[in-house]
Records
---
Amino acid sequence: MKKISVELLKVMKSKGDPIACTTAYDFSFASITESVGIEVLLVGDSLGMVIQGHLTTLPVTLDDMIYHCKCVSRACEKTLVIADLPFGTFQSSPQKAFESAVRLLGEGGAHVVKVEGGRIMRDTVSFLVDRGIPVCGHLGLMPQSVNMLDGFRAQGRTDEEADRLRQDAVALDKAGMSLLVLEAIPAILAEEVTQLVSLPTIGIGAGPGTDGQVLVLYDLLGIYPRRSPKFSKNFLQDAESIPEALKAYAFAVRRKEFPGPEHYF
């Protein structure tokens, strides 16, 4: 596997080569995912739920993210590492976002920072990009906005919501964003957004029409003790080992066999 960069992911989009991504939170799992050739690792604030046992991602701190990002980045010589900016560390101002992002890249070793939110984040995205920080966005079901969204529910199902999401995606693309995660939205909408923007899209519960797929590692392996989302799949169930499960996931993404109809809305 070549060393993965945001520019290489754009080339993959242009060629129609699906991008495989999963979350990781420690050195050992990150080493395995790198060894099987998964292109992107997301150090997600989902660690608040699957590692720390919280019911949401909201309690996760920047120090938490930096610690886990350090662990993951030590394993990644070729894999692109994206790290979430946790709740409260980027929303107040572009300068605040910059200071938080500097720590994730400088101390944590991340290559890209991820922010949730639509057009309201345009100025922040531009501010970061102008200062050399690649940004990944997140639209649809945004876990940090769980209290505004009435829980972990699918988004973009009304004409108004769908139109707003399209406009958000285009605005963020124009602001210079490098990647965009689309979570729990109708497959047809995710495909439309993917065609509207120049940046690669990574789907989770958003159908097969995105440029890549991501799953939370603990859902992918079926080891999260609470209920996993409808759109996840346990790849360890039919595999003999964790490396084989991750290989099966990457293979299914690249063959466009995952997600199947049962894994999206």
Note: The mean pLDDT is 96.
---
Amino acid sequence: MSATTAGPATTTRNDGLSRLTFGGILRSEWIKLRSLRSTGWCYLITVVMTVGLALLVAALLPVADGGEAGDTGRSIAVSAATAGVRFGELVVAVLGALMITGEYGTGMIRSTFAAVPKRIPALVGKILVFGVVTFIVGLVSVAISFLLAVLLLGARNVHTDPGNIHVLLPLVGAAGYLALIGMMSLAIGAIIRNSAGGIAASLGTILVLPLIFTLLGSLTNQKWVLNIGQFLPSSAGTPLYTFVPAGPTPPLVQSGFIQLDALWGGLVLAAWVVVPFVLASVLVRNRDA
């Protein structure tokens, strides 16, 4: 009788095949983003409302009898083009929170983390894709709004030069503001992991906190209360899309009141993205999906 000796089982290592590269993570998040019906509707609403409000403001904004030109004309054009930013920030804040909380609600997040065991790269990819797409949508919205507003204002004898750097910067800043607000909301959603809670926390940070600090400042007449309010996301981000004429930069503190410029406002708003994102990264790494 001959004995048959079983050799060692041949195993094929597929560990590397089951793990996405960072480029693959970005492509995966892009597919997720564009496959959601809510994404298209939210971005469409942002574009329509931004353009619509720009036309409304350009048609109704008071203009001197002889028309306007120079810095006044530029300021009017920028104000009209960015009039819808306050509405757009609410839409992208809701969408940003839903981008992550929706996955927790459906259980898809477990598949995401199974494909990306380290988890944090998945969160980085998600926030980068959402931020870039939101920036592009915001820039397109504001650019269309500006061009149409310039045409309408020109008929009302309000003249501006679209190529002026002091006109272009607020338009780009408006798109950046929308992107940063959306990214902040996504990070908050990753912390809370619940759609209703994430949306409430994001909108509360954008809308409710500024009202509270403004009310407290008015009632107490304390400068420090109003100064703290300047560091809230919506207040810090306002200089990003505000027309500032050429000239010397005013001081950050005037008569005891802090007034952030576009640079400092952008840095403060960026901190509102980084801090929640770091906390979300720690929690995502250590909590069960």
Note: Residues 1-18 have pLDDT under 50 and may be disordered.
---
Amino acid sequence: MKRFAIFAFGACSVVVFVGCAGDLSNPGDFTDGGTAPKSAKMILADSCGVATCHDDITKTAELDLLSPNVEDRVVNKNSIGLGCESSILVVAGEPDSSYLLDKVLGSVGICESQMPLLDTLPDSDIDILRDWISGLGGSGVGIPDGG
């Protein structure tokens, strides 16, 4: 039994001292660097769905960008901004026709201010929103393929 205990202790020691493939100077060996890929929903929640803005309680401009199923509240829905009521928040598959993206970009002709109010989104986040809107349209389901 004593031999087994000595063997087990030795084996555990080897694992502890040799088992790591990297060291703390190479954090990439241990994780993905601590950043998960961003999604459009994360960007909307973190940048727009904050308290007193487009969260699930305040719903500024009657818009909740925080709660799940945000697509249901923005796709083919009209803006309520005075003078922009005919603008569609998100036109599925068409980011350049989507008023939400115009607001984020500060495009000419938007009602009121560019969003988010206190900061502009980085280009990488805008690209993610653009890709998300593009991906919402035309999956090809139910469209005849001609034969």
Note: Helices lie at 2-18, 40-47, 70-74, 99-105, 123-135.
